[in-house]
Amino acid sequence: MRARAQDNMRVSVLDAVRFLLLLQAIAPPPASCITVTCPAELHASSGDDVLLSCSFTSIERPTSRMMVDWSYRPQSGGAPQTFFHFSSQAFLPHEGQFWGRIRWRGVPARGDASIALVNATLKDNGTFTCSVRNPPDVHGSPTSQTVLTVTPRAPSIRFSDVAVLLAFVLLPSAAITLFLIGRMLCPKKKKLSQSRAYRSPIEVTEGEEFDAPPPGKGRSTCCELYLTDSEDDDDYYDLKQRPRGDEDYAESRF
Q1: pTM of the model
Q2: What's the number of CA atoms in the CB half-sphere (13 Å) around residue 99?
Q3: Is the peptide bond preceding residue 136 cis, with omega within 30 degrees of 0?
């Protein structure tokens, strides 16, 4: 009796093991997870080409059943709209906001599902969503989002603006600098004696205009003539301020 009970127990255990093995063979393998990653934010200027990067990791090797979808939701709100699809080949938008401005840059074998947006505009501000499916990887985080912010491009300085700046600022400054250097290099003559009678610079005595310069002295330079006139003027103002006297002042002849 006892031996019979033990035999029945062994049979039950064997039946349970067989049932578990059969269930394991029939049941499908558990699905693995896929992870999609995109940068949280992107910033660009109007007219730039923007790379909307999207990478994914999957245990299964990408096959012809792998699919990539890109959708867009405006900054003002609304439902997302799918504008790009990839399944063995890229299906670009043929109408709408992104017509002619999307380029496929992905390499599925390397886990890359990126696209490029050409000539970004202020109307492109919004949220871009990348979705990747690689059966049997259907669980996990198959989507990721990027917020794109496009700002107006700062005005650039044109060549004409630079030319105006050179003409009205740098050139006058250079001329003034050269003038001051010339004044410093030309030494001042000694002042004429204040006891010398003043003679008007426009007064010319008879035959004086034909007098030759003193022997051994060449023609006066422009710098010397300028300084001589300035010194004569200084002597005139000094004599004018002094009291009038016969020994210090001589009347000019007309």
Answers
A1: 0.52
A2: 4
A3: yes
